[in-house]
Structures
1.
Amino acid sequence: MSNHINSKMSDATANAEASRCLFCFDAPCQKDCPAGIDVPGFIRRMTQRNLRGACQLIVRENPLPWICGVLCPTKRLCASRCPREFLDRVIDIGGLQAYASVEEDHGEMVNPSERLSRKHIAIIGTGPAGLAAISYLSQDGFEIEVFEAEDYAGGLITCGIPPYKIDKKRAFQEIGRILDRPGISVHLGFRIKYPFELLKEFDAVFVATGIGGEEIDKKFLKFKNVYPATEFLKELNKSQLQGRTFKKNLGPNVLIIGGGNTALNAAVSARLLEVPNVTVVYRRTEKEMPAWSHELEMARKQGVNFSFLLEPLSFSGSDGKVSQVTFRQTKLGEPGPDGRRRVIPMGAKRVVMESSSVILGTGRKKIELKWLKKEKVDHTTGRVEGKNVFLGGEVLHGAGLIVQAVADGKKAADEIKRLLQERDNQR
């Protein structure tokens, strides 16, 4: 399963693509990048064959240049207003960023400053937000201790993104360039239940633990062959990382319920596991699917089937396994408060589908932070009221983009540095 969506550019392709840039004044691509990368600046350096300089410019704002280059939906972000679209097509900014990051080893580019301070920071979670905070705080000379509940660093990057989308070996190399720096210690398989307790040992704490799995009716999970999409993808990733065969036998007819990116990632992954019949069932129409268009295109290219205007009513089977799913037909009404058209059941009409396995990708739920009682959280800075504890990434904002989580981690690092400097100045 090494069929990565963003395959590596050739030298000739990268040079030709970089030369297409118009180097706009007040470039919209830079404004639309959540991490604030100087896009025209790094592309200009590429046209000058200065790949090291291009990578330095990227890493200044984003410590995960290759990962974001591969995974960012650039046509929805930095390239969304690229003027080249009016001439031919937008610049492949993600491809160029990934190329510059691969061709130049940027491991030694960022030299942590001397340990100007003996301040100790705890980071909980090594997803993109946590990694960004670690990177920028380490550059500022802070001692950092990292706690990760999984056995692998990377969070969503390594355990959530399906293997067909990204080369995990190279992703680990980029993650390692951050975590292997001096002054950083990492504890894997270590779950922190009460972050406030860490304030006894640390000057500040950054919590970037991501969000939970799908919002699922528990009655559907009593069957052995019904899997939440996030758990399915996590198990698939872990099997690849451990070099073992994926253990779940999905059978010949897999139903994927849901219409978001995670549902489609699960569907494509099932097809790449050589499941002959994979069908995505969604309660609205294709037009209303929250999944991105390129995800839909990829799914169709891999032979995934689609059924619309159906929502599940009941699962049935024997020996603890689902063999049939009963759906009711739906139609769409007027837009609701969220702007999406309401789903309206259509009387007694039913559709029954055969299934050997069911994967539920019905929307991720936000983790309830039981350690937070009455404390308020400033959603601008991520700081917990009255504490040197900060939240960032999905645990603060809900499901989002990797580059947005990177921006969150960078913001948290700046806030922590400012807070501790102010505290020292008041002494």
2.
Amino acid sequence: MSQVRAGVEAKIRVFLRGEPGLETAVIDADTPLVSSGLVDSAALVRLAALLERETGLLIPDADLSTDHFDSIALILAYLARRVG
């Protein structure tokens, strides 16, 4: 699982670096993404779609919240809970 987690984290970081305005941003595991305005709702939906493709999970729209997606650490914890 740790290799899968590392791979997913790398994909998240590549995605974030590709977002306008985030190319040079320093984002650590606990950097607020949504609540700080770094990631807007459209980017959040694109990120969820990427994660669905990478993990095979279906992420319900109701889960696209700061509770689950406000930092890389929260995203990884959410995915770990969903995978089981």
